[in-house]
User: Fold these one by one.
Assistant:
Number 1:
Amino acid sequence: MKKKIGIHWFRNDLRINDNPSLNYLSRNYDNILGVFIFDEINANPKLGSASKVWLNYSLEYLKKQLNGNLIVFKGEPKECLDELIHFFDAREISWNRCYEPWIIKRDKKLKIYLNEKIKVNSFNGSLLWEPWEILKNDKTPYKVFTPFYKRGCLSAANPRIPKSEKINFFDHNFRVTNISDLDLLENKMWENEILSQWRVGEDSSNEIMKSFFQNGVQNYSEGRNFPNKKNVSRLSPYLHWGQVSPNSIWYEVNSLKNLKHDDLEVFKSELGWREFAYYLLYHFPYIQRKNLKSNFDNFQWIDDSSSFKKWSQGLTGIPIVDAGMRELWQTGYMHNRPRMIVSSFLVKNLLIHWKRGEEWFWDCLFDADAASNSASWQWVAGTGTDSTPYFRIFNPVTQGQKFDPTGEYIRKYVPELKNLPIKFLFSPWECPNEILKNINLKLGKDYPHPIVDLKESRQRALSTYEQLRMNK
DNA sequence: AATTAATTTGT
DNA sequence: CAAATTAAT
């Protein structure tokens, strides 16, 4: 007798544990097929370089978890799934939902098409609350984080409790596309460098979560601001790819004993910000490209490729900015504090369009996430709803002094400044020539002069943003 | 999730 | 005169 087969389509849920679609199938089918489709045809935007690297090794890991039985395709999902359903005579297919506009559009069509042949089901595998569940009393979406989170999310039904089941993956001999055939890897040297401090895969994400909850989450509400402290989870890439579910994190942190109230609430609210980003992208899908506040559409951004290039390379001459940008390039990640500093610098001091920064982050970040990335850039630029006010312009010198007081973060990523006394580490241009001579550091040669005057560019940003406010 | 300058308070 | 508070951006 033929075995009953259900297909699970892996997307941004590269895990076995707490996977609603897999759990569902395992209750109804003796055997499950796991399939991943690399869809470059519909993707918009296409995956960034760092994301491809992460995906490559994540798929290899997942394939091992499935005893080699992960089926990998490259191409149009409709055709790939057709072939698979036909070959295995599968009875049902299911997946966990994604919320990127291009995926919603693709999946909607696909669902209608597949429904003609077999049962199709989708589940919530990556959000604590789905966007349509949280609405104001007048049925319109929230636009401000605090009411969204407190009145919306926290007073709604509790998130699904994580659950892991034994999944029987079908042992097959279907033709296999090698993961290497997906051509996800391009630049070995850079890839080895950025991967060197990461361990990709579901089990690593669980270990990282557990060890963060044992140590780093203590004093989270304070310590999370300091890029040199171990008080951030660094779970964002795993969360993006679904190697850990937000539900697992939510309930795990809730179960901790001896965690200060503030640390718990602030940590959870960061998951809340992730929810808010997905929420905004769902309800306002154009925020990936266009200002959420349309009065910014005529804003006088400066198209300055030379400054942008220096920013992206970490050669602005402002140490904390360069440290952040180099952390990004070298590790595929940037701590949240420098993320805010470098983006404020690009958007306000340089007056370069947030979209250019968003695209650079998209290409370089392991945790590149359409929702969080666009929402965060618009937050910094002031073009989003509930974003930072136009006059909040980070001073990268005082930010450095406050949040990297020992200078360790700067010295780590901008080693040419390692001998600079702490007094001038945040503003080398103020360092007396005598000291520069002593440590053999030539500004303009070993390290650049600042590409903009902080005071002047701050004034320029204020007046440019002020104009916009007048014209409203 | 900020900065700066002006102003008041504290020792 | 430094530190804290406040107003304005």
Note: Residues 389-393, 462, 465-466 of chain A lie near DNA strand C (CB under 10 Å from a C1').
Number 2:
Amino acid sequence: MLKSAYVEEVFTLRAGDRVELLGWVRNVRQHGKLVFLDLRDSTGVVQVTVKTGVADEEAVKTASTLGREASVKVVGRVVEDRRAPGGREILCERLEVVGRAYGEYPIKPGVGPRFLYDNRHLYLRSPKVSAIMKIRSAMVEAARRWFIEHGFTEIHCPTFITAAVEGGATLFEVNYFGRKAYLTQSVQFYQEAAIYGLEKVFSIQPSFRAEKSKTRRHLTEFWHIEAEMAFTELPELLETVEQLISYMVVETVEKRKREFTELGRRFNVEVVEPPFERIKYEEALNILESKGVTISWGEDLGADEERILTEQFDKPFFVTHYPKEAKAFYHMPDPSNPRVTLSADLLAPKGYGEIVGGGQRIHDYKLLIQRIEEENLNPQDYRWYLDLRKYGTIPHSGFGLGVERLLQWILNLRNIRSACLFPRTRQRIYP
RNA sequence: GCCGGGGUAGCUCAGCCUGGUAGAGCAGCGGGCUGUUAACCCGUUGGUCGUCGGUUCGAAGCCGACCCCCGGCGCCA
């Protein structure tokens, strides 16, 4: 039987079966008329042995001229051999070159991270990057499934916008036929409009931030999972977030076991078992105080404070009720203490920091105008947003989740860039 | 934007303190090898030492300015 197969199948077929594999040559080891090829495809790597007596002279000759990453078609038999990695290899009978590798392949052992990002278009072929991308895909798929199963409608919002969601944040400016426009940093406002028809909505799309951040947690373009819910107040929002996060992580870990192993990463799913602890901003200050860090009330938690705080927890936890001066104007003031807002951030443990940010929105027209003016913003810029409060306003809440941040945490990635196919940072827009 | 580290062969780096005319490993190329696992052995190509200026008989190394990269902070997901 001549059979077209994927590399992973080699390890489940019977010894002696003949297969036809298509893939790329990861490495070549030559011993005169015995040549070993490490053949890679999207499912794994297998050793192909090309030797005279099994393959013809021509195949051995061809094999010995192959460079790294040449694409080939191999026909051969699956054999058990203790000397082969994984205990199995392909004894090559026929070898065909699909595409040669011209010149030396730049990606090889010993190269540094910078070089790998300069050559990301090639490095993507590595099993490690493939594993991360498969995990990422599974994670986003799980999120989408969870939303759909819970009655949310997926909506797609514009990327070009005219005004900032949050006054101070830095936006990328684009020339929109002579008018000033910006790239979106959140679809929240559009989602707030959409809930009047759909009640529960979610979006999975990129957001852009022009902040000049130079850290391993920041991208200028990142994938943002956002949701907005009508008739929802803070406590229900927190439950939604913890259910979603838990589902996403557990599903991903269970469905992508092999990829986690490939990356040498284990994730204990008990860590994301709901409920997550909720602490108020004020309690966070007390915890910090007990660790010898004092910040004045009203100040936002800085990176150092966040790190110290997250080190006290093994599971993700919510920090709620931030002071209104630390949050954007649309956050709902707490009726029982108007100095604070019905806001919440979900912080990952052990220093990974903010994964989700959200809260209850102001739904009262007058209060919203008042808050816009207090922040020295112009209500004219928010006309349609204010309109939403004029016709049948309702309490509502929403949140945003950083896909790469969540991946960075569950995969323990040193740098957020490795969670992206082609990362975009302040310094990098190529390749 | 502020602070710290860095830029030397295709890649990873040493040399810089103490100035004397550029090195290693890997990769490449040629040759050898029938059981390698990032194979090994022999041979070999390869450098505006980030840029500009200064000091000096002489600068990769000292001094000054600038450019670029990485990270920490601020800002945030």
Note: Chain A has two domains: 7-99, 118-419.
